[in-house]
Amino acid sequence: MYRYLSLSIMGIFLFCSCVREEDSPIVSNPNNKTTETPSTKPSNPKEPKKPKHNRPLTGYEGYMMFSDAGYTQVPVNIPIGVQSLPHLWLVDRDGNWLGRDIYKELIDKDPDLEGCCESSLSVSSRYLALVLKYDFGHEGGRHASRAVLINRQTMELESSVRILQPEAWSNEWVKKAFTLSDGSAYLAFTNKHFYKLDPKTKQLSPLSGIPQYRFVKYAYAYEDRGIFTMQDDASVYMFKVGSSTAEKISIKYAHASVEGIANNDDYCLLKDKDGRYFLFSLSESRVLATFRTDVSIGRSFYYDEATQGLYFAGIGPSDAHQRSIYRIKIEESDKEQYYKGDLYYRIAGRTEADSRQGYFLSVSYSTSTNKIYVSWLDQGRSGPAVENRTKMVVLPLAPMNGVLPVKSEQTFEVRGTYNINSTFYLSPI
Question: How far apart are CA 278 and CA 109, in angstroms?
Answer without folding.
Answer: 41
